[in-house]
Amino acid sequence: MLVGVSSSPETTRKMVEEYLEELAFLADTAGAEVVTRSIQERKVIDPAWFLGKGKVEELGHIIEGAEIDLVIFDEELSPVQARNLEKAFECKVLDRTELILQIFAVRAKSSQAKMQVELAQLEYLLPRLTRLWTHLSKQKGGIGTKGPGETQIETDRRLVRNRISILKKKLAGIARQHDIQTRDRQGTPRVALVGYTNAGKSTLMNALCPNAGAYAEDRLFATLDTRTRRLQLKLNKTVLLSDTVGFIRKLPHRLVECFRSTLDEVLQADFLLHIIDASHPGFEEQVQVVRQTLQEIGVRHANIIEVFNKIDAIEDPAALRSLSLRYPEAICISAARGLNLNALRHAVSDYVARDYRERTLRVHVADYHLISYLYEHAEVLDRRQEDEDVVITYRAHQNRLPDIDTRIKALDEGASNVA
């Protein structure tokens, strides 16, 4: 059973119905079969029951009659609310946060993703440990009369806190190692794919980079690990394209924090490709969710190209024309069918070109290492011979210029020492 709460005018019943559609997709991804749904109109959330007491009793009868063994709420429940509802329903109760954590736990493949998910789960679990030990007795009395249940809870909390501390240290070590491994990427423009979960980011990654091997499936959170591949635009114009974890409405803050190192790819990118599922009826709200999440993780720039994907799933040509008129700067594609991908490549190339700088350099013909480096890492526009010197006009990305300047400086210092 899926349960949502409508509080008009802020959250209308129609909105909650759409939210429960997404919750059903989440439940299906986690392996649950949705039997029924329930929406209650309620202005104020009950601190003890979340729903009204009468609604809880009504749902209890439905749960018993339909032999439902799992109830999922679209909002996050407090430990007290979850405990009371499980007693009333006599079955397992999950909230949206716990369901998403379950999906992440199943989807995590790499050791880093598994540690990030475990950390988020433990931080969620810590204030809810009393639910796990209700079968143990708690003796009444004064000093020195703690019951075994209370002692067990304290012991378990200490173990959980210790595990959280260990995981944070390990993830910090992985982040440092990742920084070292990616230092050689600093000279290459970086582009990150962002978007709502199941918008088609991994499919687009595979379409643009055929050897990417990104896992793509019509499921929420199919990709949790960041995958980076080189995308060749034209001669000596290459970008590093990164596929990142998808966002979702009410993405648990714990997951955002725990996946901070993974989301660093988004922060370090020169610009972003915001992939939007054009065929989704609620894509505008999804766009707002992604924008808010980007702000939450620290993205402050406006270097974002909006890409409407799945245009082949839009049957009404008028709807597609309307979309183009409302978002004239956006690019409409179909990653699955390869429609309009050249336009996307040109847009990325044009965006990258803004950060290229043109320079002229005079070097001795014997300095072939530097000349070879320019041909390999820059776009050579002109080359002419003047006596024993070579005058090269080249264009390079601003990220690559510091490395070129360092090599020129080292060459000048070497020549000075010889002199």
TrEMBL record:
Xref: InterPro entries: G_HFLX_dom (IPR030394), GTP-bd (IPR006073), GTP-bd_M (IPR032305), GTPase_HflX (IPR016496), GTPase_HflX_N (IPR025121), GTPase_HflX_N_sf (IPR042108), P-loop_NTPase (IPR027417)
Compartmental location: Cytoplasm
Gene Ontology molecular function terms on file: GTP binding; GTPase activity; metal ion binding; ribosome binding
Record: residues binding GTP: 195-202, 221-225, 243-246, 309-312
Pfam name, any one: GTP-bdg_M
Cofactor entry: Mg(2+)
SUPFAM superfamilies referenced in this protein's UniProt entry, alphabetically: P-loop containing nucleoside triphosphate hydrolases
Keyword Nucleotide-binding in record: yes
Keyword presence, GTP-binding: yes
GO cellular component, one term: cytoplasm
Residues reported to bind Mg(2+): 202, 223
Keyword list, A-Z: Cytoplasm, GTP-binding, Magnesium, Metal-binding, Nucleotide-binding
Location of the Hflx-type G domain: 189-356
Subunit structure and binding partners: Monomer. Associates with the 50S ribosomal subunit.
Role according to the record: GTPase that associates with the 50S ribosomal subunit and may have a role during protein synthesis or ribosome biogenesis.
HAMAP family reported for this sequence: GTPase_HflX (MF_00900)
UniProt record similarity statement: Belongs to the TRAFAC class OBG-HflX-like GTPase superfamily. HflX GTPase family.
Protein name: GTPase HflX
Organism of this sequence: Prosthecochloris vibrioformis
